[in-house]
């Protein structure tokens, strides 16, 4: 959710080992502070993968993995589950949940324009125009979760319009121009724009589930088995996470010099996040709980779309 141009960015490609018979995995990720253990896995532990950044988030990765542009995606839990749980998904859905990246919830900051005196609290957002990166993205899904928590869903249309704006910079511009009234984005990515006075914080909302999951293309993941390269990816990611946990100063240095966060914000974020000790595997109950919330919020429909068991590769 770092403010970057709306385009796919390829970074630090590591080509496959010539002794390997299969090509390197193509891994999609969101280029922000949560990416740090993945960066360490590549830098220190020879992660054999081509990393492709998606600044516009999980919704874009859903499209990319279904189009065969990436093999693996690391993104927001609600975005992946909403993508598979909606009715009318073509074919086999294109991907399955295979791993867990972050165990802790995500704090979504709720933001409006710097000069919007009419917006004074979360309650004043009922019937407002919500800005989202993409339909089906976390910023879109969490709008319904917010409406559910506030009791607005009974009115059928909790927001007057949903404005698709692709990326974080466009969202910030839109709340200041009036194109949108508010949007939601990760807290620490939003904070420096509060500090500079570009946008104003209205409130926050936490995901009712662990925040980041790993998915694999159905070309590489069946109901009960994984391509061996994915097993290697889990091993390298686990080592990257251990390195992150054991080298906090290196993590802060990377986040504050390469990703545009302040050192105090990077250190504060470290207190709030816990990455998975073992990335392989997804708890069915976490997926089922997320589906339940998304159905209650009106994002998914009871009896339609894929169920929790079908979304997860069981290994």
UniProtKB/TrEMBL annotation:
PANTHER family to which the protein is assigned, alphabetical: ALIPHATIC SULFONATES-BINDING PROTEIN-RELATED, TAURINE-BINDING PERIPLASMIC PROTEIN
Protein name: Ca3427-like PBP 2 domain-containing protein
Keyword hit for Zinc-finger: no
Keyword check for Repeat: no
Ca3427-like PBP domain location: 108-205
Location(s) in or outside the cell: Periplasm
Protein family: Belongs to the bacterial solute-binding protein SsuA/TauA family.
Keywords, in A-Z order: Signal
Database matches in SUPFAM superfamilies: Periplasmic binding protein-like II
Gene field: g7460
Top-rank lineage group of the source organism: Eukaryota
């Amino acid at each position: 959710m770092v403010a970057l141009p709306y385009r796919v960015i390829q970074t630090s490609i590591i080509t496959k080992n010539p002794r390997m018979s299969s090509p390197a995995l193509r891994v999609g990720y969101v280029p922000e502070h949560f990416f740090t253990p993945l960066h360490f896995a590549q830098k220190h532990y020879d992660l054999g993968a081509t990393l492709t950044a998606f600044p516009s988030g999980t919704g874009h990765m859903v499209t990319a993995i279904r189009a065969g542009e990436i093999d693996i995606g690391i993104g927001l839990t609600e975005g992946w589950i909403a993508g598979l749980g909606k009715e009318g998904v073509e074919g086999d859905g294109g991907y399955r949940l295979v791993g867990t990246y972050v165990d802790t919830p995500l704090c979504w900051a709720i933001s409006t324009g710097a000069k919007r005196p009419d917006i004074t609290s979360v309650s004043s957002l009922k019937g407002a125009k919500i800005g989202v990166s993409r339909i089906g993205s976390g910023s879109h899904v969490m709008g319904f979760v917010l409406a559910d928590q506030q009791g607005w869903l009974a009115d059928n249309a909790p927001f007057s319009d949903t404005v698709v704006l692709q990326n974080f910079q466009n969202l910030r511009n839109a709340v200041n121009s009036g194109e949108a009234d508010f949007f939601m984005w990760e807290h620490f990515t939003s904070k420096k724009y509060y500090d500079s006075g570009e946008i104003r914080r209205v409130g926050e909302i936490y995901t009712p589930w662990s925040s980041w999951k790993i998915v694999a293309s159905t070309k590489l993941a069946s109901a009960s088995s994984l391509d061996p390269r994915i097993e290697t990816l889990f091993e390298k990611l686990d080592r990257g996470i251990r390195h992150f946990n054991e080298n906090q100063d290196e993590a802060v240095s990377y986040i504050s010099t390469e990703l545009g966060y302040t050192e105090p914000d990077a250190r504060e974020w470290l207190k709030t996040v816990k990455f998975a000790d073992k990335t392989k595997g997804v708890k069915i109950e976490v997926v089922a709980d997320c589906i339940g919330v998304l159905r209650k919020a009106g994002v998914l429909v009871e009896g339609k779309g894929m169920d929790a068991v079908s979304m997860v590769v069981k290994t």
